[in-house]
Amino acid sequence: MYTLYDAGEIRSVDMNNPGKPEVERFPNIGRLPYDALITPDGRYYIAGLFGEDGLAMLDLWQPQQGVRRILDNYGKGEEKLPVYKMPHLEGWAMAGRQVFLPAVGRHEVLVVDSDSWKETGRVGVHGQPVFVVAQPGGRYVWVNFAHPLNDTVQVIDTLTLQVVHTFKPGKGVLHMEFSPRGEAVWISVRDADVVQVYDATSFARLAELPVEKPSGIFFTSRAHRTGL
User: Fold this and answer.
1) What separation in angstroms does the CA of 201 have from each of 131, 155, 185, 194?
2) pTM for this predicted structure
3) pLDDT digits (tens, 9 = 90+) for 22-48
4) Which residues contact 190 (CB under 8 A, 6 or more apart)?
5) What residues have CB less than 8 Å from 2, skipping those under 6 apart?
């Protein structure tokens, strides 16, 4: 699966015959689809739309139904803010039936019911969210932010939809990756040239590794998970 930013379409590639792949096109999904995710059960492919408020969703179990729009006009009637960095949907968070998604250009995290795919709430946060990542187990969601507020990380309780912890690892927080069981989180802090490791319960800093301009952190446990 992949999405074409300029063409505004989703494509599905059947690679059962690598010498002759079969491509199925789903055009006219919306303006400027910038990133996408697959739900952990492998059923839904969801593309964010940079050019408009909303997302495009394809049911991979029933692709003949075509693309469905969800969360249309979630910012309708409100002043649009400049977007300093596109959010990343592959860092999405699913906790129980709830999905937590970054709102484009807004200081909010959207909460969506994964059965109806309708918005059920919003959480006001420090800045424009880039990654919204669920801690393994799903109880907490961790959020980092775009420039110029990219020195901060916030933690949201998925039961209360409240921010329960805010801390500042340093300028240029780009990526967060949890250990497979969720007891620790690794955070890249680009402008400080370090990767920091925090206890995910006490929020105590456990280690700091010198790394030149770190960006993404990807553990091998990702190879065994669907939806990244």
Assistant:
1) 20, 11, 10, 21
2) 0.85
3) 999 999 999 888 878 888 788 999 888
4) 171, 172, 173, 174, 213, 214, 215
5) 10, 11, 13, 36
